[in-house]
């Protein structure tokens, strides 16, 4: 029997970075194990002789041959001399291979004996040929006996195995790494699902709608419809919110990219120590210059009455007639979002086409370029267009008049400007605004009313012509057809259905009442959303080449394919541009002259400053006032804080602390109640009220500085609305630092613990403070009494005032109550039941009927005035009582507890005002400055805010004059370039 051996087992090489795990085993029976070299006897501790010599010689032999390397001798402990060493070495060699099972034991929480044996057999089968160890290891029968004993070891060591804590920490660390990796992948997947177009969204919405419909079978039809509408509204709201976040994120990324480029340029300039190179002026293409003119005009004359008569191609048609597909075929890229039967075009989209070496697209207000040869960029472009459309729709509307401007450049593109409009609808669905149909019709008429607009009228060839709504509108706006081009789409679907004569009539202009410059037939797709523009164009050319309908002489070859259509539209577009551009330039010259004359007559000594320039000037003035805030003296801050603190705290001090304690009846009760209430106040409400008072003092002083600035001779009242809005918004956002409350609480509690007035000067200040406070309350009480009991006799005669019936009734009650106070000047604050009864009976003798509550209401101000007068008398008595107080303390003959209380309040106000003053100077003024700068930056990027806050004839006239100058300059620049091209 081996007693308490200790084994230090070496760790598998895969875990060398972990320190060895120590297993402590007690009272283990190894009977049945035979020492190598013996005749089958039991090898026990203490067995020596030849067995030991044979085993040790074999061990040395194998160690020399590097077949078996024992562990470091320093890791073993020996007991019992040489015989114990022989047994320990043998057991160590055996367990070096066998006890690798400890990892399986740890992994399966020390499983049963059968599972352990099975795992061991599997492990043993995977070992290489180790026949040379048969002389060292026992045979199978002996090993079976050892296995049984090993199972017993399992039970014995089950409760004594301790895992190294560092191994646990390592496992937990690895597990946390895997968990973080999985969470990150999950978040990425969720974000991708939210930000990318998911083809299952529509299916999910239909499933939800169907589910709600099934659930609503037990309800009325109206309730079911409301549930479906509510769910749909929630889905739409979530989609809109996601799109808003995406748009905001995109703008921030673009802003950061721009700043990064500017900073990199500045860094390179500083690094090379050279002067900043002059920017090389990039030569703009003719169509880009023309597009910039149209962008300038888009916000100047939205009614097309006098100013904006420049040509552009207006794409109009019924919903799902294929107008967007026609525009994409001309642009040679799928740049617009599309849906199945759903209105996708919700706002006008102005597309400027121009020729260039690369096929790219770019929004007017963004510097990012989308590579139209990459499907990923195309998907992002379509998503951004949809985001902009949804963000342009406000106030529950379905469509918007806000224009989305983009430029598309690419090889072989015809130069022109096209405007894609929402499709005209016959019936509006329940998810649309009630005026959607009228809004779309008004928008279409608005763009077609431009006398120089080229109308690209799209008609679906796969439906009956009588179902068309757009042809009537086009014929009304252009009855002679001098600027209309008719396009028949989806003719591949109409080939097997339509009558050839009917198609001939349409393309010859004899079927519809409208007239046009030209008639075209195109194919813009095969009904597959994933088809590229190249595939569609090949399909279109192949169709017209092989179509029996169009080979039979229905139309001429120049009237088919999108390619011929784009050539014809571009030719007409430039012809109208050359005919009208000079007239537009002359019109703006005359407008500019009129505006400049009006400005000189109204504002002869001022320069024309637009809203952006005015805003920057106002911004500088506001920030200057913030600087002046830091120049306020410490003395003035403390005066402001003292005044504001007492204004916020006086009511609580009188009503909740002083009056209840003073009316308690004795000086000891007064002091006890005061201590309790002051501590509760300092722990709860006082710090928060102090911070509130400090913030109001800061706000008051800042507004005072702004008022002083308004009274200066050079003040311009044009900025007043903007300044007030900025300051109010900054003050609304700003909050006092959180840790200030905790700091004030400690200071105030420590100050209130002091109950002894230190010197005569402080005593006199406390007496004056007490007198002034009581007088203020007494004056307020007199005002209340005057309103309740009516004018006095002198007021009646001098001011010709009279009392009401109610006031006369109150006076009679007052006369009875005065008798009670005259008989007992130290009366308690409340009336007893007997006193109330006596007052009522006395009034009844005079035929005055009153209720008990009525008497109590009358008693309250009367007793309050009586008490305040007594308190004021005590204040007079305490003026010269400091010597008695300093000698006798609380046992002073003159009761001056009131003065001590107000001295403590005064000290709290002083230390609080000092702390608040330090916080304002050190922290809060700078934090307010930061808030004002943030508000100014936000307003500077919000054109609507500037339009709302900077108003007046001066601003409007300057804005219009600046805009007309810009348009005229761009028109002249374009005309010069156009003449050079001729």
TrEMBL record:
EC number: 3.6.5.5
Compartments it resides in: Mitochondrion inner membrane; Mitochondrion intermembrane space
UniProt main location, coarse: mitochondrion
Coiled coil feature spans: 221-273, 918-977
UniProt domain Dynamin-type G: residue ranges: 307-582
PANTHER family the UniProt entry points to: DYNAMIN (PTHR11566), DYNAMIN-LIKE 120 KDA PROTEIN, MITOCHONDRIAL (PTHR11566:SF67)
Identification of the protein by name: Dynamin-like GTPase OPA1, mitochondrial
Organism of provenance: Anopheles melas
Organism phylogeny: Eukaryota, Metazoa, Ecdysozoa, Arthropoda, Hexapoda
């Amino acid at each position: 029997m081996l007693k308490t051996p200790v084994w230090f087992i070496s760790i598998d090489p895969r875990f060398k970075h972990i320190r060895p795990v120590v297993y402590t085993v007690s009272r283990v029976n190894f009977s049945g194990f035979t020492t190598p070299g013996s005749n089958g006897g039991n090898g026990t501790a203490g067995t020596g002789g030849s067995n030991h010599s044979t085993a040790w010689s074999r061990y040395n032999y194998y160690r020399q041959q590097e077949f078996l390397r024992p562990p470091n001798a320093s890791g073993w402990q020996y007991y019992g001399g040489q015989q114990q060493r022989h047994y320990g070495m043998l057991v160590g060699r055996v367990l070096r291979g066998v006890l690798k099972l400890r990892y399986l034991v740890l992994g399966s929480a020390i499983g049963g004996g059968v599972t352990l044996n099975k795992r061991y057999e599997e492990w043993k089968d995977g070992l290489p040929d180790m026949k040379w160890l048969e002389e060292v290891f026992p045979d199978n029968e002996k090993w079976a006996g050892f296995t049984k004993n090993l199972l017993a070891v399992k039970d014995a060591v089950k409760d004594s195995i301790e895992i190294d804590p560092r191994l646990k920490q390592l496992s937990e660390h690895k597990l946390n790494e895997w968990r973080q990796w999985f969470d990150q992948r999950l978040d990425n997947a969720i974000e991708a699902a939210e930000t990318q177009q998911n083809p299952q969204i529509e299916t999910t919405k239909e499933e939800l709608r169907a589910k709600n419909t099934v659930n609503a079978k037990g309800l009325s039809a109206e309730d079911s419809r409301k549930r479906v509408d509510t769910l749909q509204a929630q889905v739409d709201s979530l989609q809109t919110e996601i799109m808003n976040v995406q748009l905001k994120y995109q703008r921030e990324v673009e802003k950061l990219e721009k700043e990064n480029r500017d900073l990199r340029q500045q860094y390179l300039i500083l690094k090379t120590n050279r002067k900043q190179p002059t920017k090389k002026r990039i030569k703009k293409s003719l169509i880009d210059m023309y597009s910039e003119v149209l962008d300038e005009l888009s916000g100047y004359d939205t009614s097309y009455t006098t100013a904006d008569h420049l040509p552009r191609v207006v794409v109009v048609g019924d919903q799902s007639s294929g107008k967007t597909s026609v525009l994409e075929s001309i642009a040679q890229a799928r740049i617009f979002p599309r849906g199945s039967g759903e209105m996708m075009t919700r706002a006008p989209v102005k597309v400027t086409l121009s020729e260039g070496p690369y096929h790219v697209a770019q929004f007017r207000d963004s510097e990012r370029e989308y590579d139209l040869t990459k499907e990923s960029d195309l998907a992002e472009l379509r998503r951004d267009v949809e985001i902009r459309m949804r963000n342009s729709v406000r106030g529950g509307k379905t469509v918007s008049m806000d224009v989305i401007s983009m430029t598309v450049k690419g090889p072989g593109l015809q130069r022109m400007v096209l405007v894609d409009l929402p499709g005209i609808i016959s019936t509006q669905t329940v998810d649309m605004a009630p005026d959607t149909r009228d809004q779309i019709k008004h928008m279409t008429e608005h763009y077609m009313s431009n006398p120089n607009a080229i109308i690209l009228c799209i008609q679906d060839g796969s439906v009956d012509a009588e179902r068309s709504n757009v042809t009537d509108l086009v014929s009304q706006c252009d009855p002679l057809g001098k600027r209309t081009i008719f396009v028949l789409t989806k003719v591949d679907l109409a080939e097997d259905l339509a009558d050839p004569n009917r198609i001939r009539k349409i393309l010859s202009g004899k079927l519809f009442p409208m007239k046009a410059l030209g008639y075209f037939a195109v194919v813009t797709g095969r009904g597959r959303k994933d088809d590229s523009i190249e595939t569609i164009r090949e399909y279109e050319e192949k169709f017209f080449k092989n179509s029996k309908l169009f080979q039979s002489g229905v139309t001429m070859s120049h009237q088919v394919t999108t390619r011929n259509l784009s050539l014809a539209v571009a030719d007409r577009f430039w012809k109208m541009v050359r005919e009208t551009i000079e007239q537009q330039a002359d019109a703006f010259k005359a407008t500019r002259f009129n505006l400049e004359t009006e400005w000189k007559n109204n504002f002869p000594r001022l320069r024309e400053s637009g809203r952006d320039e005015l805003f920057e000037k106002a911004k500088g003035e506001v920030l200057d006032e913030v600087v002046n805030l830091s120049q306020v003296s410490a003395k003035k801050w403390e005066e402001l804080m003292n005044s504001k603190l007492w204004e916020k705290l006086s009511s609580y001090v009188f009503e909740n602390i002083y009056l209840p304690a003073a009316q308690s009846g004795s000086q000891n009760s007064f002091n006890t109640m005061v201590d309790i209430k002051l501590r509760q106040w300092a722990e709860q409400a006082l710090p928060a009220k102090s911070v509130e008072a400090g913030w109001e003092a800061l706000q008051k002083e800042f507004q005072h500085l702004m008022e002083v600035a308004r009274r200066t001779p050079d003040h311009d009242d044009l900025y007043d609305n903007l300044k007030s809005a900025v300051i109010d918004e900054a003050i609304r956002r700003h909050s006092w630092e959180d840790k200030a409350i905790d700091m004030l609480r400690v200071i105030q509690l420590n100050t209130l613990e002091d109950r002894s007035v230190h010197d005569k000067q402080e005593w006199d200040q406390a007496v004056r403070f007490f007198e002034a406070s009581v007088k203020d309350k007494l004056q307020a009480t007199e005002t209340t009494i005057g309103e309740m009991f009516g004018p006095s006799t002198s007021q009646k005669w001098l001011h010709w005032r009279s009392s009401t019936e109610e006031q006369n009734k109150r006076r009679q009650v007052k006369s009875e109550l005065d008798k009670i106070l005259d008989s007992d000047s130290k009366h308690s604050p409340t009336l007893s039941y007997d006193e109330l009864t006596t007052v009522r009976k006395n009034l009844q003798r005079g035929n005055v009927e009153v209720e008990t509550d009525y008497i109590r209401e009358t008693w309250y101000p009367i007793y309050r005035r009586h008490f305040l007068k007594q308190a004021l008398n005590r204040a007079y008595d305490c003026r010269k009582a400091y010597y008695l107080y300093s000698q006798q303390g609380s046992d002073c003959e003159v009761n001056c507890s009131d003065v001590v209380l107000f001295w403590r309040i005064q000290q709290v106000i002083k230390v609080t005002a000092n702390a608040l003053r330090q916080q304002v100077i050190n922290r809060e003024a700078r934090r307010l400055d930061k808030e004002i700068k943030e508000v100014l930056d936000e307003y500077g990027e919000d054109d609507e805010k500037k339009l709302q806050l900077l108003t007046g004839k001066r601003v409007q006239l300057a804005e219009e004059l600046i805009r007309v100058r810009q348009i005229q300059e761009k028109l002249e620049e374009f005309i010069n370039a156009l003449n050079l091209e001729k």
